[in-house]
Amino acid sequence: MKTFPQSNALQRLPEQFFSKLVKKVQNVKEQHDDVINLGQGNPDQPTPRPIVQTLQEAADNPLYHKYPPFDGYAFLKEAVADYYKREYNVEIDPITEVAVLAGTKTGLVEISQCLLNKGDTALVPDPGYPDYWSGIALTGATMHEMPLRAELGFHPNFAEIEDPTWEKAKLMFLNYPNNPTGAVATPELFEEAIQLGNKHDVCVVHDFAYGSIGFDGQKPLSFLQMPGAKDVGVEMLTLSKTYNMAGWRVGFVVGNHSVIEAVELIQDHYYCSLFGGIQEAAAFALTSDQSSVEQLVGMYEKRRKALVEAARRIGWQVEAPKGSFFAWFPVPVGYTSESFADLLLEEARVVVAPGIGFGKHGEGYIRIGLLSDESLLREAMERIDALHVFSHLVK
Fold first, then answer.
1. What's the rounded Cα separation, in Å, for the pair 381 and 308?
2. Neighbouring-strand partners of residue 300
3. Of 36, 207, 212, 331, which is the most buried if we count CB atoms within 10 A?
């Protein structure tokens, strides 16, 4: 049987670091049945029942058994506009400023294909979500990392970007609340990004996947709340985290009309929108009572408290995340992020995500998901305590 070579574009794709982690975890699971997986980013709660019931009823509608409109149903785009007006007091034109996505993972890859050419540069946060890299690689563009450091609140220092890089830059990715660090944005950060986007003709793409998950009574800031944001950029919104709809694959690009037009153009060639029943259920999720979201955020806040308190009790000097459902903890002296993650997996049977998987500036940290109940989070810290890697720090 012939073996056909992959295209140059596929060969440029970065190695999937976390596929290696999955294999390690599977090997340990085959020998032990008590593995605590805190390395995942997959919500552990079900989709709220009213949303599921809306889909069940909508599935009987024969209209949805036909091809949907290529750009998605107008009622779903209107629901997105209503959501932004209610949640952020932002006016959105549902016709020209909203594109429907099969999940924002898809959109984050597509947007590079829409706006980048070979020789262009994209500015990416480091550490950051690895799929930013994938879209850039497919286009043959160059990636310029913006380090996220603890001393700056895990915000990029735009002053470090030199003029030759700005001259080639066409895209800038931002993500707050941040995966993996749990940091949140400030108005000043977004204002500076908008000013630089205008100055250098750079499109700002704000990944707002964890937009509903803020702690200590603080509501995360939408990029589109900033004056001039739509002039220079877009925001990507997903239902995966807010409504536990990760498997439903529903997301949106919202903002600059020229970017929306480009995204809808490329999607005309990829697929014909989403099943209409899912679109109706998504519209219901966005416009109905939001008490399930409040309860979800409350649950994550309790888990955050349990994890941070348990970690500090064993001598781990950690900071509580300000948003998202991830915690970003430093590794002890003498370990890399990967060697420490391997130790926890092999000796404590606790899975965490090594920071190096999110970029070179993720080294020195591991990511823990708040996606297990409080008792499991505490048990994981007890198992780590038994390794005595922090015992010398306990007073």
1. 9
2. none
3. 207
